[in-house]
Amino acid sequence: MSLISEGAELNKQGLGNQAFAEPSLVGPSLASVGDYIALLKPRVMSLVVFTALVGLSVAPGSLHPVTAFTALLCIAVGAGASGALNMWFDADIDAKMTRTARRPVPSGRVQPGEALAFGLTLSGFSVVILGVLVNVLSAALLAFTIFFYAVVYTMWLKRSTPQNIVIGGAAGAFPPMIGWAAVTGSMSLEPIVLFAIIFFWTPPHFWALALYKTEDYARAGIPMLPVVAGDSATRLQILLYTLVVVPIGIAPWPLGYASALYGFVSVVTGAIMVLLAVQVYRERRPAERAARNLFAFSILYLFLLFAVLMIDRGWGGLIARIAA
């Protein structure tokens, strides 16, 4: 559910034969509690919960604190379920990449069937509880997000197109909409703007990572943009997407959703994003240092936008709801 990258000439039948035939993936489970936590991709989950919290806190209306906690817990569990399903399906390519080889499934500590059952159980639990205790719209959005990440992105886009990150980025952009729907039971322009910020932020963020992990992706047969189109084309796309996401990141201010404080932060951090993207674009040797700088700052950029928006617009309302 968040965010994302990878794919190639492997079909599912070939994947199954390889993943289940390798010695490291058969035999008794050696899983610990920590391995099952790792299946949830806790770092990705934390970003999902945070952006969902922003959507929940800026939404108009009221929500009982217990209901709000339930909504966030279900969103977190749904995000973790997506991560587990992703690790189940991607065990073969994870085993070929230094960045992912020690994950629980490719390392043999968790069996593929266990990861699959874990992910499906958490998926069903999170969607049903959210639908019963919060509302149907938020549960439907969560179900679609899990499906989109686990099936559309992981099983199809990741291995078939260098646009995997662009289209697949939608999975990581839905949480603010789910948080908003949990409060209002409806949808409007504001959560769509939050969706757009994350959606257009995802390509430059992950392509920056891919620039200095190209060999990893190539070894796994994943058609990431640097593997398929080369560094130069990737650097250009990073710059173009950055030039798109920065105005969208500023948009809540002129649209009246945020104050001048948010406007100031979004303009300053957006300018830094553009500057770093230009540095990546102008790098004519392998752009590892510039790409690392952009990748690291892009995380801070997204966090600051959403944190300031929540403090500026939603924090007071959230506190009032809890105190009520």
Judging from the principal axes of the Cα atoms, what is the shape? Answer: flat
What helical percentage do the residues reach?
Answer: over 70%
Examine the secondary-structure arrangement and name the CATH architecture. Answer: Orthogonal Bundle
Biggest sheet: strands, sense, closure? none
Please describe what this structure looks like:
- With 324 residues, this protein is mainly alpha-helical.
- It has one domain (12-323): Farnesyl Diphosphate Synthase, CATH 1.10.600.
- The chain contains 15 helices and no strands.
- The protein has helices spanning 12-21, 33-39, 42-58, 65-89, 91-94, 112-133, 136-160, 164-173, 175-184, 189-211, 214-220, 225-229, 231-250, 260-282, 288-323.
- Helix 3 crosses helix 15 (288-323) and helix 4 (65-89) runs parallel beside helix 7 (136-160).
- It is flat, with a radius of gyration of 20 Å.
What is the gist of this entry?
With 324 residues, this protein is an all-alpha fold. The protein has helices at 12-21, 33-39, 42-58, 65-89, 91-94, 112-133, 136-160, 164-173, 175-184, 189-211, 214-220, 225-229, 231-250, 260-282, 288-323.
